Structure formats: structure tokens, C-alpha cells
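User: Let's play a game. I give you a shape written as C-alpha cells, and you guess the letters that built it. Ready? Here's round one.
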């Protein structure tokens, strides 16, 4: 239950950040964009220590406030960084410290799914909208979690073990060897490399 309480604190922190705006920022990183562009998601820095890369061959650069991410772009946080990613359909994902993701696919607000994200290591919180066209998937080396109208977390301290926790609703968990399970809240499952070769 520790991460549930922390999520509430993060939500309050995000409100405070949103109220401050970016008027004091004079730097503009190459990925920065204002409105949500078609085929992109927006990441918002909650605490400093967030970096993004445009494409899988590019180097990471610090994100000062917001950045527009497209398929193939990466996002990571350091020991202090925390960020929120907003999808076109209104779904949200938050990245904990020491987390790295890649945006692998994006749909429009009317598409299914709204997005696919690959988690390398770290922990993400996801809240997906409850609509036939909503939701997104989080893929790791071991399994893929997909949901619509749900709240769940995926935590991979290493690439050989990931824990999937459903807080609200139901997610579909598919391991890399093709086994599929429906997980309804409240439930937590850990998948290891031995379980999903």
C-alpha cells in the first residue's frame, strides 16, 4: 500500500508544478513542444532529473519542463527524477526514479490502443481511460500488461523480474511465451525470467 499513498502525494506535487508554469525557463530542449501534437505524447517533469532522446540512435538530453515524444523516442529518470506522460486519449503514466521507457507505438484518441510503451527497468504507474478506444500497453522483456479503465503499476528492478500490480479494474497479462491471464484488482503477480523464457 506504500505506493498508493505515494501516488497521492505525487498527484498533489503535479498540481503545484502545473500552477507554476514554465515562464521562468529560458532553455528549450530539442523535443519540447506546447500543445499535444498528433501522433505524440507529452511528458511533464514533476521533479528534476528527467531526460529524453529523439529516436533510438540519439543521445539523451535533459528535459526542463515538457517534451513531445513520438514512437521510437526514449524517456528516463535519474535518482531524483519523476515524470508524467499524457496520452492522446487522456490516459496517464508516471515514471518513478531510475526508470527508462521507450514509446513504441501511438494511436490517435480514437485508436486502440492509445499507446504502447516498453519499460526497460524501473517502475511506472498507469491510469487508463475507460473507453473502447482507450488504454495502452506496457511491455517488458518478460510480459505485456494491457488495460482500459484501469490503474496498475509495473515494477522491474532488473530485466529478470517484473511485478505487475492491479489497483483498479482488470488488466490482461501476456508473458513472452504466449501465456495470457486476466488480473483483477487487487492483485499482484511477479514474473521472472524462469517463468517467461
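Assistant: Ready! My guess for every position:
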Amino acid at each position: 500500500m506504500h505506493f498508493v499513498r505515494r501516488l497521492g502525494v505525487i498527484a498533489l506535487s503535479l498540481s503545484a508544478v502545473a500552477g507554476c508554469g514554465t515562464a521562468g525557463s529560458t532553455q528549450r530542449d530539442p523535443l519540447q513542444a506546447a500543445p499535444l501534437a498528433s501522433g505524440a505524447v507529452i511528458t511533464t517533469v514533476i521533479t528534476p532529473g528527467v531526460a529524453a532522446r529523439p529516436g533510438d540512435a540519439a543521445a539523451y538530453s535533459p528535459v526542463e519542463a515538457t517534451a513531445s515524444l513520438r514512437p521510437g523516442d526514449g524517456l528516463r529518470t535519474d535518482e531524483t527524477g519523476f515524470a508524467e506522460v499524457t496520452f492522446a486519449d487522456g490516459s496517464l503514466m508516471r515514471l518513478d526514479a531510475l526508470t527508462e521507457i521507450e514509446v513504441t507505438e501511438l494511436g490517435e484518441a480514437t485508436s486502440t490502443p492509445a499507446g504502447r510503451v516498453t519499460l526497460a527497468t524501473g517502475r511506472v504507474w498507469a491510469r487508463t481511460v475507460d473507453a473502447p478506444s482507450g488504454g495502452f500497453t506496457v511491455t517488458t522483456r518478460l510480459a505485456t500488461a494491457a488495460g482500459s479503465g484501469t490503474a496498475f503499476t509495473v515494477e522491474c528492478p532488473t530485466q529478470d523480474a517484473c511485478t505487475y500490480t492491479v489497483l483498479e479494474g482488470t488488466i490482461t497479462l501476456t508473458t513472452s511465451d504466449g501465456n495470457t491471464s486476466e488480473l483483477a484488482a487487487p492483485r499482484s503477480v511477479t514474473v521472472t525470467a524462469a517463468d517467461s523464457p
